[in-house]
Amino acid sequence: MKGLLLLSGGLDSSLAGRLILEQGIELVALHLESPFGCENTAETMAAELGIPLLRRPKGDAFIDILKKPEFGYGSVVNPCIDCRILMFSIAKQVLSEIQANFLVTGEVVGQRPMSQKRDTLYVIDQEAGMEGEILRPLSARLLPETRMEKEGLIDRRKLFGWAGRSRKPQLALARKFGFKTIPSPAGGCLLTDDHFRERVTDFITLDDGRDKGHASLLRHGRHYRFEDSTWVILGRNEKDNKALDEKITGLGVSFHPEGFNGPSIFFPDPVPAHMEEIVYGALLPYIPEHPQGYTPMTVKTVWGDHSHFLTLAPPLEESPFLKEEYWTNHLRH
To answer: Which one is predicted more confidently, 86 or 165?
Structure first.
């Protein structure tokens, strides 16, 4: 008997896995990766449980859902129900691949307002073709018996009937199990973050023709959007620059200041015709003032595997990109 644990890296899914391991069931963990590259502790928690970890991307299908979810959005641009259906559909494929018998999740009834109501859980299972095949150990006693419970493969009496958003029962159980790592409470879905939501809204409304891989750029840097839908990203720090350098390959072009300190600048394809003017304006606050006005600056341009040095001449003084307030008005945080 083998189960597949949908492991987010949070405490709930880790506890759900431990409860099933306590019943002598073999488990394999599956972590589904967001196109945004969200940070998580899935590897740490799989090691805590002593089980192997598989990773699969949500991929382009998630971007399609984000743009037009069949079941709509929550309070913001969070297509929770459609996302959950996609996750279970991917998990169903993995179940077949590894010859596992059922899926385990850490869902708690009522914890999430859109996707974890009892009626909604039933709809999600049905849409994913997983009715009776998903075990939710933390809330199992509040839900209909699964096939595994009916067949006596899982002892329902050793599962819980938790509901709501309190974290106290989970913390108590983690201490009882002697978890060495207790993940901090998640801040919720990244799509509900005010600043990130603004970037995502731009992405799904302005970038229909762009490669879906551009979604991986949204988590890094300081983003600007100008009137013609031009998208510019400035690295905040060395970590940002490194991440964006890796992700921009094949998706756009980057500029790096030479001879002075300043942010790296990234343009996702398609790049604008006035790209060099924007670069000059972005780097202007970082170059030493010249007594006779604006001065040329040198940057390193990287496009895929190709790079070269470029000297930028100052744009005309009426260029809006030379004005700090213009940048401030188009900031997407």
So the answer is: 86
